[in-house]
Amino acid sequence: MRILIVNPNTTASMTEKAATAARAVAASGTEIIAATSRMGPVSIEGHYDGALAIPGLLAELKERQGVGYDAAVIACFDDTGLEAARTFADVPILGLCESAVVTAGFLAQRFTVVTTLERSLVLIDNLVRRYGMGDRAKVRASDIPVLELEDAASGAVGKLRAEIERALLEDGAEAIVLGCAGMTDLARELQQIYGVPVVDGVAAAVKQAEALVSLGLSTSKRGSYASPLPKPFTGAMSGFSPVLKVG
């Protein structure tokens, strides 16, 4: 099977980090294809960035349809554009937050999501509640700008570790969820250090995508995720106009 990893920001090094994490857990018959958005913000930190990242994300999903993929993973923990992508696509689309918190729920009664900046805290907390884990999870911000995770000299890892330690001590966390795609390369090391499950959303989403494809399941096209109605879009959005599907 072929799984598309789409980074909805425009920083290619973050795409490669996510692709590496995906390939590390993918089954032997799974091909990982990585794509970086070509328009939008260099990082997604809050609602404004997320809104402006969605057109680039959808453009990548649309363009890659010609090559073909069996499922796609949106490599942002804000689950940027997830609902729109599920409406647009005919294959399973997974988000990092949903995949990670569902996985953590299999492993622990109480867990903490450790994300980057304070501005993302409420956004992610709302997602966690939407996914049914509000009574079992807390969300913490570690005061790390996303792009600092690409700089080994930034001190970002030290800030992340300090917040994890507070989560274990103050929240009684039994597992940790890494709340940013840029943290994906740290999961194994942090799990060894702290002795609790550390869930990376990229890895979790890839394995869940494989499971859905293997089961022959995809997103329902009845009701909420029905394909967009054909209509003209104007201006810069004209290329996104839905067309009538035949058959």
Q: Can you walk through the features of this model?
A:
- The chain is of the alpha/beta class.
- The protein has 2 domains: 2-95 and 203-240, Rossmann fold (3-Layer(aba) Sandwich), CATH 3.40.50.12500; 97-200, Rossmann fold (3-Layer(aba) Sandwich), CATH 3.40.50.12500.
- It has helices spanning 12-25, 47-63, 82-88, 96-107, 121-130, 156-171, 187-194, 201-214, and strands at 2-7, 31-36, 71-74, 93-95, 111-115, 137-141, 175-178, 198-200.
- Helix 7 links the parallel strand 7 (175-178) and strand 8.
- The protein is globular and about 55 Å long.
Please give the alpha-carbon distance between the first and last residues. Answer: 24 Å
The low-confidence runs, each spanning 5 or more residues with pLDDT under 50, are none
> Which structural category fits the helices and strands?
alpha/beta
Overall pLDDT: 95
Please report the number of helical segments. Answer: 8
| Strand count | 8
Question: How much beta, percentage-wise?
Answer: 5-15%
Strand order of the largest sheet: 2-1-3-4
For the record, the CATH class of the largest domain is Alpha Beta
Largest β sheet strand count, sense and barrel closure: 4 strands, parallel
Helix % is 25-40%
EC number: 5.1.99.5
Catalytic activity: a D-5-monosubstituted hydantoin = a L-5-monosubstituted hydantoin; D-5-isobutylhydantoin = L-5-isobutylhydantoin; D-5-benzylhydantoin = L-5-benzylhydantoin
Protein name: Hydantoin racemase
GO molecular function: amino-acid racemase activity; hydantoin racemase activity
